[in-house]
Amino acid sequence: MDELILYTREKCPLCDKAKELLDGEFSFREVDIHSDDALIEKYGLMIPVLEYRGEAIQYGNLDLKDLRNRLMDV
């Protein structure tokens, strides 16, 4: 499976919730949007953002059931 990337930032309760939701279910790489100005511009108001194959597939409150279904169809 291709890599899941979770874009987050510090002091973000939704980001913490997303990490807890994904942990143990999926392997993912976390990227702090504050590591790159372009990421702040792109995702600043949407985080957390889950990216798969270069596409933002979920943001805000992640839906684990929808995510499982989506990744099974790939």
Automatic annotation (TrEMBL):
SUPFAM superfamilies linked to this entry: Thioredoxin-like
The organism's place on the tree of life at top rank: Bacteria
Signal peptide residues on this chain, from the entry's feature table: none
Pfam families the UniProt entry points to: Glrx-like (PF05768)
Taxonomy of the source species: Bacteria, Bacillati, Bacillota, Bacilli, Bacillales
Protein known as: Glutaredoxin family protein
Native species: Peribacillus saganii
PANTHER family linked: GLUTAREDOXIN-LIKE PROTEIN C5ORF63 HOMOLOG
